[in-house]
């Protein structure tokens, strides 16, 4: 049987709807091409340090970070940051809100560490949200956006005043606003809303978090150098990373941060993402064969929209047809194992392309 062809006039201009890595704006790639002066040059010299400083300043401006907070970065992505927290930021015991695969991975990393007590885990079923509430934990950790389920959680301080709050904002940063003073480390990676490439982690760190890492280190704990938060802070103050960063990743990130500032900052960017995801939630609620996976509208992610389909529609087949027509990566998170669409509506995605996507969905579903 010949593959189903979606008429050209229904197709989005750009068919990339992945939840990470995600669409890179063509203008950012053009910028990358223009910066051949940077590519292939030393990260210990002024031009690359200036690039790092520009990225740090731009991110600080975008999130209006409080006085005393610092923009810290290093190699290894958000996944590395979990192990860094295990070695450098959790003193004795952490508490985790677990409501999907990414929040679970951090809790698991903490539970495996021989030098820590077993973490306190506060769990919600996929599609819900759980915040940690523990009296005897020195770290409270959860994600602002659980990319695996499309559930978003509030960012407000939990736990004792002595406990520090670590927010996984990997897919939230650059798409959802936050009051950074409610957090001690707000960490993320640039391959989602920031439309760059993977491999880097970035964090807004409070004085309390920086002090915590210094105290743990001074206490003599063995900390591998790449997982030493204090070393990352020291390098970041000099606009460097411990080891060689991907310069293309930094250039794409620089371009995206400036694009966001020019758009009007986080308020404007967040509104754009919310418009896109709302289009999908409205579409699903208007169809008898579809429904938003996250039942509570307040927890529906404004950046990653998950839509359940009933058994009459085979999501895998639908996703395959979309893919042959250039609409890519709307697959659900594998481990979730649902008959579902998951659509990344990050900052770079044009809300009009999301409208087109819903038209394509109707077109294909009618004919399946
Ligand atoms: C993508 C993602 C991660 C993993 O990021 P890497 O940079 O690939 O390690 C972690 N947490 C969340 C919430 C994510 O969306």
From TrEMBL:
Main location class: cytoplasm
Catalysed reactions, semicolon-separated: 4-(phosphooxy)-L-threonine + 2-oxoglutarate = (R)-3-hydroxy-2-oxo-4-phosphooxybutanoate + L-glutamate; O-phospho-L-serine + 2-oxoglutarate = 3-phosphooxypyruvate + L-glutamate
Cofactor binding note: Binds 1 pyridoxal phosphate per subunit.
One Pfam family of this chain: Aminotran_5
Positions of post-translational N6-(pyridoxal phosphate)lysine modification: 192
Positions annotated to bind L-glutamate: 44
EC number: 2.6.1.52
Ligand binding (pyridoxal 5'-phosphate): 102, 147, 168, 191, 243-244
Function field: Catalyzes the reversible conversion of 3-phosphohydroxypyruvate to phosphoserine and of 3-hydroxy-2-oxo-4-phosphonooxybutanoate to phosphohydroxythreonine.
Pathway in which the depicted protein is active: Amino-acid biosynthesis; L-serine biosynthesis; L-serine from 3-phospho-D-glycerate: step 2/3; Cofactor biosynthesis; pyridoxine 5'-phosphate biosynthesis; pyridoxine 5'-phosphate from D-erythrose 4-phosphate: step 3/5
The family this protein is said to belong to: Belongs to the class-V pyridoxal-phosphate-dependent aminotransferase family. SerC subfamily.
Protein name, per record: Phosphoserine aminotransferase
Domain of life the protein comes from: Bacteria
Subunit structure: Homodimer.
Residue stretches making up the Aminotransferase class V domain: 139-327
UniProt-listed InterPro entries: Aminotrans_V_dom, Pser_aminoTfrase, Pser_aminoTfrase_mycobac, PyrdxlP-dep_Trfase, PyrdxlP-dep_Trfase_major, PyrdxlP-dep_Trfase_small
Keyword line: Amino-acid biosynthesis, Aminotransferase, Cytoplasm, Pyridoxal phosphate, Pyridoxine biosynthesis, Serine biosynthesis, Transferase
Known cofactor(s): pyridoxal 5'-phosphate
Entry's localization field: Cytoplasm
Family annotation (HAMAP family): SerC_aminotrans_5
């Amino acid at each position: 049987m010949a593959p189903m062809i979606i008429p050209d006039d229904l197709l989005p201009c750009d068919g990339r709807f992945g939840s990470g890595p995600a669409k890179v704006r063509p203008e950012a790639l053009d910028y990358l091409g223009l910066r051949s002066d940077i590519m292939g040059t030393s990260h210990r010299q002024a031009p690359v340090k200036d690039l790092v400083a520009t990225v740090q300043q731009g991110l600080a401006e975008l999130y209006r970070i409080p006085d005393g907070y610092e923009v810290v970065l290093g190699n290894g992505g958000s996944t590395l940051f979990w192990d860094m927290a295990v070695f450098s930021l959790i003193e004795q015991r952490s508490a985790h809100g677990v409501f999907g695969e990414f929040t679970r991975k951090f809790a698991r990393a903490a539970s495996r560490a021989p030098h820590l007590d077993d973490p306190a885990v506060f769990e919600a079923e996929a599609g819900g949200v759980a915040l940690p509430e523990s009296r005897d934990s020195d770290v409270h950790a959860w994600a602002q956006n659980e990319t695996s389920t499309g559930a978003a959680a509030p960012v407000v301080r939990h736990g004792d005043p002595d406990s520090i709050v670590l927010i996984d904002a990997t897919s939230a940063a650059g798409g959802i606003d936050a009051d950074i003073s409610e957090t001690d480390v707000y960490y993320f990676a640039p391959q989602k809303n920031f439309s760059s490439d993977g491999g880097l982690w970035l964090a807004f760190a409070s004085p309390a978090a920086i002090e915590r890492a210094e105290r743990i280190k001074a206490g003599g704990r063995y900390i591998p150098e790449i997982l030493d938060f204090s070393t990352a802070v020291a390098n970041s103050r000099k606009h460097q990373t411990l080891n060689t960063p991907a310069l293309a990743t930094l250039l794409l990130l620089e371009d995206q941060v400036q694009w966001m500032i020019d758009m009007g900052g986080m308020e404007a960017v967040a509104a754009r993402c919310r418009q896109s995801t709302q289009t999908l939630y409205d579409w699903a609620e208007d169809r008898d064969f579809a429904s938003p996976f996250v039942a509570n509208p307040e927890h529906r992610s404004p950046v990653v929209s998950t839509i359940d389909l009933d058994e009459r529609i085979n999501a895998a087949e639908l996703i395959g047809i979309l893919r042959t027509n250039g609409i890519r990566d709307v697959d659900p998170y594998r481990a979730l194992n649902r008959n579902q669409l998951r659509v990344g509506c990050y900052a770079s995605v044009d809300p009009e392309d999301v409208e087109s996507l819903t038209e394509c969905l109707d077109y294909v579903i009618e004919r399946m």
